[in-house]
Design a protein that fits this description.
By secondary structure, this protein is α+β, with helices and mostly antiparallel strands. It is built from six helices and ten strands; from the N terminus they run βαββαββαββααβαββ.
Length: 216
């Protein structure tokens, strides 16, 4: 196992949504029609045209204040992607993994048809989405075209606080463990790195992971 990884330090995320906007811009994805659903988060969820969304969750805190939990959510690029395993049963190599570990959905995903729901259910993070008009499936592709040219993914390039970092596996795991040690000193033993052996997006959280996302 090698390749590229993201490291996401939620303690440094300010929910500026720079990563979310950069993803839209680089991929030339259209805006969605949204509405006020009682949260600062916008849009409400991932979609065929929204590969990344910054989730906003708030919980009561001490002294009548509010604790915010921000979580930039997208494909985790699993080391052994279950969506590919499921998809290969129906359409071989509609989902591929490139040399850096990016899990990429190809034009062949439109051949899934109704079986796409099984592919989506195979994802433990409920990430992939399908366009009802074309039948094509899509999600974050790790900006593989940028990475293959030696550039950062658009989301990591845009992060102003160092909350979203990208690089080689060894460097990102080293950084994750360093940030974790710092977080434990400040926040205690609830600090942890999520799914460090299973995915290529290493999330540092400092509280119950379900406070960040249903699928964290």
């Amino acid at each position: 196992m090698s390749g590229k990884y993201f490291m996401v330090d939620t303690t440094k995320c300010t929910a500026c949504r720079g990563c979310q906007v950069a993803c839209k811009q680089w991929n030339k994805l259209p805006a969605e029609q949204t509405h006020n659903w009682g949260s600062f988060q916008n849009p409400k969820d991932l979609a065929f045209d929204t590969y990344r969304v910054v989730r906003f969750n708030e919980y009561p805190a001490e002294k009548n204040s509010v604790a915010w939990y921000f979580f930039t959510d997208a494909c985790r690029h699993c080391v052994a992607p279950p969506c590919k395993d499921e998809g290969d049963q129906y359409v071989k190599d509609a989902i591929v993994v490139d040399k850096n570990g990016a899990v990429i959905y190809t034009e062949k995903t439109k051949e899934f048809g109704k079986k796409f729901e099984d592919v989506r259910k195979a994802c433990p993070y409920d990430v992939p989405r399908m366009d009802e008009k074309t039948g094509l499936a899509a999600k974050c592709h790790m900006c593989y075209m940028r990475v293959n040219e030696g550039l950062l993914p658009a989301c990591a390039k845009s992060c102003p606080t160092g909350a979203l970092v990208f690089g080689d596996e060894a460097a990102m795991k080293k950084l994750a463990n360093e940030r974790l040690a710092e977080a434990k000193k400040k926040f205690g033993d609830k600090a942890q790195i999520l799914d460090i052996d299973d995915v290529r997006v290493l999330y540092l959280v400092v509280d119950d992971k379900k406070k960040y996302s249903e699928y964290a």
